[in-house]
Amino acid sequence: MNWLTDSFLQRLYDQTEQQHRFQAHTRENWTAWHQDLRQAFITDLGLAGLPRTADRPRATLLEEVACEGYIRRRISLELCPELSIPIYILSPAGSTGLQATVIACHGHGYGSRDLVGLKPDGTAKDGDPGYQMNFALELVRHGFLVVVPELIGFGDARLAEEGKSLMEYSSCQRMASNLLMLGHTLAGVRVWQVQTILDWLCSSAEADPERIGCMGISGGGLVCAFAAALDSRIRAAVVSGYANTFLGSVMAKHHCIDNFIPDLLRHAEMPDVIGLIAPCPLLVESGSEDPIFPIASTREAIERISAVYHLLDANERFDFEIFPGAHRIWGEKAYPWLQKWLQA
Questions:
Q1: Which of 9, 111, 208, 301 has a Cα at 20 to 30 A from 103?
Q2: pTM of the model
């Protein structure tokens, strides 16, 4: 007798009608699909009721360090009266005026320090750069103003109960479960975080509001993809180590609870959600040996996303790179891609 429950879950998935799966054949079909899925996605993420200030979010400078080829600043940005978060800002040395800007979203680990070449204690890294490959440093070396937020639940933006534990321990579990009880999701709160950062950037003296992009890896790829799907102020996106299907990755492998969004599969699969980014320029990169986002499902996602761009006659705005390796930032196509769409 077989008491295992795998087939039960598969049956539930197979019987779930994805109401907004992309099947458009005309631009009129696309417009209706885009509007309907966007609204459903906003509801699924639980974005309604999260605070949005009418004023520009307030920023406080915490430190400024001259580094080789760039300036590193750390600020505290007030998202709402109850919550401020730290953000690193990397500026190319000698840069002036409004600049092409990239919001860099980290994945699981110890937060924003990892992207800017620092250890958890704030000292300079040496040796292995880790799976995130200091990619904020690569972006500033490619001429971008780089904004690196501490995503809520990580690093210094954790709950107090994790404050005495190693920086690599996140608050995802309790934050996500509490938010679900309140009708929100942790993914939605992080998208709200990025949107509030955009509010601040678009009225800054440094960031060109017409040339803001986003790049994220793993859980940061989720944040980047979801924010770009919902906010047209993001003009180009690179999603690394995330694009896949929910069936092939999030439901098939062990993943953090921050990946799970109630009711979403009644509306769409992951490629449909990422397809909302079209016709904004999008590049997807993934490792051929990624153990948590299997390459076969990534290829399926790429095919389905490309169909949206094809319908919109925007094939040149979508690209991908499958690189030899596992779960990590690669960047060979990604950095020139962002330069092409944001610096030209």
A1: 301
A2: 0.98
